[in-house]
Amino acid sequence: MKYTRVRSLKFNAVMNMILMSSSFIFPLITVPYVSRVLDPSGMGAVAFAQSIISYFSLAALLGISTYGVRACAQVRDDPKELSRTVEELLIILAASTTLTFAAYLLALQFVPRLAGDKPLFLIFGTALWLASFGVEWFYQAIEQYGYITIRSIAVKLIGLILMFAFVHQASDYHVYGMIVVFTGYGANILNMLRLRAFITLMPFKELNIRRHFKPMASFLVSSVSSGMYAQADMVLLGFLATNHVVGIYQLVAKIKTMLVMAINSVVNVMLPRLSYYARNSQEKYHDLLVKNIDFVLLFASAGIACAALCPDAIIGILGGSQYRSAVLPLLCILPALLFVSLNTVLSQYLISSGHERQYAIVNFAGLVSSIIYCLILIPPLGATGAAISCSLCELTALLIRCWYARDFITTIRKDIRILPAPTSAITATAVILLIRQAWWPAQPLLQIITTGTGFTILYITLLLLLKEKTITTMIHRIQTR
């Protein structure tokens, strides 16, 4: 096995921020173009197909995308055991993906909503195999964030070129679907090709596949439930409304996803290290989780405030006049930014501390609540109902997670300052709204730039006045360099 040096959390965080920034920047380039070329109906068709395949992928992955990170991170210092673990998980994935793909083909044949555009759904069927054998969990476990970042950006650049080269009219939505699959999963091919440099295949008789079944059970329920409730709004909207309505909402969902990815850019790199610290250093484990919560409060408050200040400009730039009705759904989905990010941190605690059962229960409850909210709110409210359902679902999941993590929350409560970030964000927002009464640029891009700049200056100033720990530490480090 090739030796790999485990980088510092700072390096991993920087790499993941670059990766998440690319996931933020590339849509800013592609979404305005594709939204105008394909119109809401074409975008809705692709978004619905993407949501459906994500459901089948969850079943095929069996929770290994999460379980694999922990299982590999715990044995990463033992090359032989790491190789055995990876090989065992790949065999399980091969069996589950074969069965799931067969079920997917049957669904295309007998479900009218899917059979109506079978070519598009067959295109997305390839993503099922690419998702299962991407072994992203392995590279996260050994903290290869430099490699993950470089290859992901390279694939996104190729996808960007392909999109401008081949997507020119509304009928090209099948081509766009192919590009979406390539951009989302093409890097997984490189993952498998590179895997042999890190692991050594072992004889089948030395493997013990059954040892993973019991610990995977909780991850299976939790991962499938979590993924399903994250996509339930889009899937149910696809069955309950037209492609046009789905197209309106998919733009809102994309904006939410971009903002969540930006907020979670640092948080997501912590799980492998948390799993490691959970076994080796409780003090570092405690400190790292506290930093995660502080970071989420800081950046989620800013993201919600900035988006709420100029929703018309954001929709106008990303979608154009055809998507004007997406403004209200965007405002309704913004609270989910904070709830999703805090859910991510508390999920990391439950996973890394061995509370898989509670983690599974929370995600299952989230799925059930999501379905209930969507069935109640989507028929009368359409895309707005889906957005409200998303926020309510994430809030429900957060409250249940807080209940299960109440002992841990009690121990860290004294180390977390909850009020500075939201207080500063609300105050800065109020000041910007007052300024807007006197002057406000007409151009949407200038509105966003002006709002972002003014808000950032006010927000940081207020945080420093309130002596918010994360910001003061960052400023001190910059000053001492």
UniProtKB/TrEMBL annotation:
Classification lineage: Bacteria, Bacillati, Actinomycetota, Actinomycetes, Bifidobacteriales
Keywords: Membrane, Transmembrane, Transmembrane helix
Domain of life: Bacteria
Membrane spanning residue stretches: 12-35, 47-69, 89-108, 120-139, 146-167, 173-195, 216-241, 253-274, 295-320, 326-346, 358-378, 384-404, 416-439, 445-466
Pfam hit, one: Polysacc_synt
Name of the featured protein: Flippase
Annotated CDD domains: MATE_Wzx_like (cd13128)
Entries under InterPro entries matching the protein: Polysacc_synth, PolySynth_Transporter
GO CC terms of this entry: membrane
Xref: PANTHER family: LOCUS PUTATIVE PROTEIN 1-RELATED
Organism in which the protein naturally occurs: Bifidobacterium cebidarum
Topology in membrane: Multi-pass membrane protein
The keyword Lyase belongs to this UniProt entry's keyword annotation: no
